[in-house]
Amino acid sequence: MKSKLLLSLCLVAALGTTSCQDEKTEPTAPASGAELIRTTAHPKVDRIHIKLPARARKIDQQFTKIARRVIDPNDFQCPPSTPLIDFLLGTINRSIAREPDVFFTLIGLAADIIPSIDAILFETEATPQSQIFGYTGEYNHRMTKVERDVKRFWDINSAGIQLVAMKGTMLLDVNRVARVYEAAFVNEDGSAITHAQALFLAGIVRATLLQSVTMDRGNYPLFSFNAFAIPGGGGDPNKIAVGDGVLESYKAIGFDDVAPQAVYAHEFGHHIQFQRGYFSDHFATTGSAAERTMYTELMADAFSAYYLTHKRGAALNKKRVAQFLQVFFDIGDCAFSDPGHHGTPNQRMKAANFGFTVAAQAQKQGHILTADQFHRLFVAAYPGLVAPDVT
């Protein structure tokens, strides 16, 4: 099996991505299992080419890039770092320093994205571990509560939207990992990975992870550092998948009181878009892929902020929510040519402030706007939200 693309380590966070650059160098194909699990001393690793089935439409993570730049980067500000990214990079650097062979073997075998693909394709409310949120289940009650409250708040048909956990510990389950390899990866020649190949690779992932002294049997932020809204269809349920790594990382930097509600509320915003057809809006269907994605992501930010501060929603303190969102949105990206572009941190905060303002106005009237009413207000405000912020 051979990688078609050599990627630098790309950290994809819940609700945002860091900027990543593709490298077009073609790696050498391994001729044996021993070569397949070779390691490297630098952070550029062989990545198996990913080919997800069409039914696994994804909103918050994309693995393809486009070359052309359509947004002028000189018009916008982006921070050099953020506490969340500093925390995540710190955990990664400790692993690299203590056990580089283990770390790069697992990354080379795509262990950092296998839990995400597993959640997208296979997890439901009925599958093992799907209702255990956090490394030890410490978020079970809070995730169940926010799911119930958000569904009551918005006026869409949400009974069938399932909430599932994304867990790095699934990497120890050879059968589950093999299932992901078979469903989402291909050989160099485009042929399907056989069951025997998949079991072989999954066995290496398990054995390597068990050797680790820094990755706690998969309870490691990088393996589940994401959240998704997944539309149903073809027998698959509508889902929101929330990774342990997201919840635990925000806890580590002091935002345990806000993160679960905010992560879920943003992803629920995408389900509003799915159900109400907002992906057919003018701004969602014109311009570059980056501009189209930015529109739907900023709308989900606004939906989330409206719910979080509305007195009949989460009723959280606006100042505290703003503090969290500043960190949250600092993982917004300046990858202006990336089809997964979420908007700059400043644009995302503008969208949140829009949601705060609308919530404050609605509270005076004592009611909750319908999704369509909120959507119309957002569309009217959108050009101002994405206006250049560098003068």
How many extended strands? 8
Radius of gyration computed on alpha carbons: 20 Å
Q: Please tell me the overall pLDDT.
A: 78
User: Globular, elongated, flat, extended or rod-shaped: what is the shape?
Assistant: globular
End-to-end CA span: 50 Å
**Strand order within the widest beta sheet:** 4-1-5
Give a description of the structure.
The protein has 391 residues and is mainly alpha-helical. The chain has one domain (5-385). Helix content is 46%, strand content 8%. It is built from 14 helices and eight strands. It has helices at residues 33-36, 83-98, 100-108, 114-121, 140-153, 174-184, 195-211, 244-252, 259-276, 282-285, 289-309, 318-329, 345-365, 371-385, and strands spanning 5-8, 12-13, 16-17, 22-23, 44-47, 161-166, 227-230, 238-243. The strands form three sheets. Strands 4-1-5 form a three-stranded antiparallel beta sheet. It has a three-stranded mixed beta sheet with strand order 6-8-7, sandwiched between helices. A hairpin with a 7-residue loop joins strand 7 and strand 8 (238-243). Helix 2 packs across helix 3 (100-108) and helix 12 packs antiparallel against helix 13 (345-365). The chain is globular, with a radius of gyration of 20 Å. Residues 1-77 and 332-341 have low confidence and may be disordered.
